[in-house]
């Protein structure tokens, strides 16, 4: 199997669907694997072959730009000679999905369908949201006041007006300083602390890379499936702004974390993939 993609579903030959997300153990958000498990259970029609993007090995992503990620994934598609008919993206993966769709249009001569779930262009608020969440995850090994102080310091960094890459560097250093203390206090293996720190750094590199990509043209031709969570996806924009950003928006009465595990979203995707 190509080191840039993993199989989510073996389906129709000559019909490939690509899915882009940052999948990591322990996340609370549903995954594309959840969505396609639902879809396979409810859909009588044959499904395409589905491949999900793999991140570079931990550490190898250092210095990668958004274009580097896109070329890594698209080069693998070219080598495999897949005929890609649709590209999916979740959160910041929606920005990478746009970059992949643009490259595939040039490669294949026709654009694949672009279907996005709560797509986001990472900004300082995105970085703070994830910092707040991962620091909160260390609460078992840190005093409550230290967790709160770290989260407040992270907020101030993200509101500083610094470039996103500099904010990411500050947040990474702060998180990596807390992890070994929390793991030692909780009696957890130090090797897992190292892996967690590397994973967080990798994820921020992914977010910054997504911010590099000009997704506007591809998004204008996309269909977006939106949750009801007010700070997720297109919900951060006015109705007029979101109408101009995408070709079609389908709203679901679901929280962001459940969007990829619910039967409603699976049924919507089934219709869009026809």
Explain what this protein looks like in three dimensions.
The chain has helices spanning 32-42, 66-80, 93-108, 124-136, 144-158, 164-186, 190-212, 216-219, 239-245, 263-272; strands spanning 5-9, 12-20, 48-53, 84-90, 113-117, 223-226, 248-251. It has 274 residues and is α/β, with parallel strands linked by helices. It has two domains: 5-121 and 215-272, Rossmann fold (3-Layer(aba) Sandwich), CATH 3.40.50.1820; 124-209, no CATH class. Strand 4 (84-90), helix 3 and strand 5 form a beta-alpha-beta unit. It starts with a strand and ends with a helix.
The helix/strand class is alpha/beta
Uncertain segments:
none
Largest sheet, in brief, is: 7 strands, mixed
| Strand and helix order | EEHEHEHEHHHHHEHEH
* Portion in strands: 5-15%
Number of helices: 10
In the CATH hierarchy, the architecture of the largest domain is 3-Layer(aba) Sandwich
CATH superfamily of the largest domain: Alpha/Beta hydrolase fold, catalytic domain
CATH topology of the largest domain: Rossmann fold
Instruction: Output the strand order for the largest sheet.
Output: 1-3-2-4-5-6-7
Shape, per Cα inertia axes? globular
In the CATH hierarchy, what is the class of the largest domain?
Answer: Alpha Beta
* Rg, alpha carbons: 19 Å
Helix content: 40-55%
Roughly how many Å apart are the termini? Answer: 27 Å
What number is the mean pLDDT?
94
Task: Provide the domain count.
Answer: 2
Total E-strand runs: 7
Oligomer kind: single chain
InterPro entries: AB_hydrolase_fold
């Amino acid at each position: 199997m190509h080191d840039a993609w993993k199989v989510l579903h073996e389906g129709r030959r000559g019909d490939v669907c690509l899915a882009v997300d940052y999948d990591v153990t322990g996340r609370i958000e549903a995954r594309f694997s959840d969505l396609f498990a639902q879809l396979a259970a409810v859909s009588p029609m044959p499904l395409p072959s589905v491949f999900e993007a793999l991140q570079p090995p931990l550490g190898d992503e250092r210095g990668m730009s958004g274009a580097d990620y896109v070329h890594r994934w698209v080069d693998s598609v070219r080598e495999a000679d897949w005929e890609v008919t649709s590209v999916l993206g979740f959160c910041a993966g929606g920005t990478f999905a746009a970059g992949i769709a643009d490259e595939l249009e040039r490669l294949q001569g026709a654009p694949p369908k672009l279907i996005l779930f709560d797509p986001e262009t990472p900004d300082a608020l995105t970085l703070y949201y994830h910092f707040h969440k991962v620091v909160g995850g260390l609460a078992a090994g840190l005093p409550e006041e230290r967790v709160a102080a770290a989260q407040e310091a992270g907020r101030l960094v993200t509101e500083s007006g610094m470039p996103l890459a500099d904010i990411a560097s500050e947040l990474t250093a702060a998180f990596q300083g807390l992890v070994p203390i929390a793991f030692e206090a909780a009696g957890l293996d130090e090797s897992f602390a190292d892996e967690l720190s590397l994973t967080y750094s990798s994820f921020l590199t992914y977010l910054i890379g997504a911010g590099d990509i000009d997704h506007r043209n591809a998004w204008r031709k996309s269909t977006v499936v939106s949750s009801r969570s007010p700070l997720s996806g297109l919900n951060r924009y006015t109705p007029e702004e979101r109408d101009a950003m995408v070709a079609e928006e389908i709203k679901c009465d679901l929280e962001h974390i459940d969007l990829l595990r619910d039967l409603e979203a699976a049924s919507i995707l089934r219709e869009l993939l026809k």
